[in-house]
Amino acid sequence: MNILFAAAEAAPFVKVGGLGDVAGTLPRYLRDRGHHVRIVLPRYGAIDRERFGLSAIPGPLGVPMGSSGTLWCEILEGRLPGSDIPVYFLERRDLFDRSGVYDDPSGKGYGDNAFRFLFLSRGALETARRLSFSPRVIHVHDWHTAAVPLYLDALYRRDPLLERSATVLTIHNLEHQGIFPRELMDILGTGWQHFHTGDLEFYNEVNLLKSGIIHGDAVSTVSPTYAREMTTPEFGCRLDGVLRTYAPDLTGILNGVDYEEWNPEKDPWIFQPYGSDDLSGKGKNKADLQTALGLPVAQGVPVVGMVTRLVHQKGMDVVASVIHRLLDLGIQIVLLGSGESWAHDFFSTVASERPNRFACRLGYDPALAHRIIAGSDLFLMPSRFEPCGLTQMFALRYGTLPVVRAVGGLNDTVENFDGATGAGTGFKFYDLTGDAVVNTLSWALSVFRESPEMVTALRKRAMSRRFSWEDTAGQYELLYHRAAKKRET
Ligand code: ADP
């Protein structure tokens, strides 16, 4: 199958979140299954031409941008590192040569983001034409490229290369929808006849994600539970009704884990490698972590790890509201993260007030993330919503038992402990309240105290769980076939 990916990010070229992982990894596994995948990305300033060996394709590419006329760009060609997968970068310095991908250094979204990503969306289709590449499926991601299905339906169906192309939209986070003033219709250039409630009109504005849901041949998200939640008012971010109506087959496909990077048996970042047959190494990593973060070295004190963006989505406000009650349970909490400034101030203050119980490192530190996941006993994720979540899957692989709110991918990847049978791989709670977090951690701690042999069994079971990219790619392949079939009928 010929497959075209259009995305705002793809690792290792550019990665802000989970979208970048999926767009940079899934194509490799699709390639292994024999598909021909090509990827279109913007050439952001941070993507180094030399480092990635990018070379220009001769001749400029014209991208029609409605009332703004045709904008010209260069196409740079490279390969997804370690593969033969072609990647095409749209080179337009005025749009993409900036320090950030979406936001300026103060964290504010660029004022021309709608224009930038419509340029990418339409540019992806123009790139396929330029290359005479006829994709059976075009896989678009989040609002940034969600206009592609509409562009196809409105403007490209007479092109022999694109007339049969099916579209798949994957929603990595429903919170971001690409909502802009209605004047964007002029730049979109598909005509105002698309500005109505059955298309991309949304409370008198333009909603690009909504247009992708309506025009896409298939819509997916990154876990089965999130797929169900998205169709409810609580999690639907005002698009639940649209999803129920236009995406009745909404599919949830879990992201995979890179077990080359996340393997406690050969992790170069951690103090001592260990496997499930000898968990003593885990204790050494715990002591190393306690030492590194200035906490008292005590094997008997359970360590609860957190590695997270410090934002509303991750429930950090709820953790803040009960932090002292949690620390009074006799545990140590280790937090690595960055995000909202109140959280930086708050958690640094707690760290200075309770240095024997709480250690906090603000910033982005992959090496420390590995050490925390290896050295902790429990791993806390009280997310408000969690489309997939990766860190709980890493924690499982390291025998660090997740304590999670049962939402989205957390619900799908963690099995709740059952005291009667000893089954499970972690501990779940349902309400996002301080009491629920305190009670569930207390429950986990009581199991640690009273049934150490059960904890060992839980750890071993957790370490045996796998969320492989092979499985994920197989499920996307089925989705592509479904979308392609729909286009034929
Ligand atoms: P999200 O994409 O919503 O932030 P995920 O759990 O899907 O949450 O992925 C988060 C990824 O970012 C994981 O790979 C995690 O290890 C990493 N990460 C998050 N915060 C930090 C940090 N402060 N330092 C290092 N890695 C981090």
Q: Mind telling me the C-alpha Rg?
A: 24 Å
- Provide the β-strand percentage band: 15-25%
What oligomeric state do the depicted chains represent? single chain
- The gross shape turns out to be elongated
Distance separating the two termini:
18 Å
Listed once per kind, the bound small molecules are:
adenosine-5'-diphosphate
Helix/strand structural class = alpha/beta
What does this entry look like structurally?
The structure is a single chain. This protein has 489 residues and is of the alpha/beta class. It is 37% helix and 20% strand. The chain contains 17 helices and 18 strands. The strands form 3 sheets. It has a 9-stranded mixed β-sheet, sandwiched between helices. A 6-stranded parallel β-sheet has the order 15-14-13-16-17-18, sandwiched between helices. The protein has a 3-stranded antiparallel β-sheet with strand order 8-10-9. Helix 4 links the parallel strand 6 and strand 7. The longest helix has 20 residues. The two termini are 18 Å apart. The protein binds adenosine-5'-diphosphate (ADP). Adenosine-5'-diphosphate (ADP) binds next to strand 13, strand 14 and helix 12.
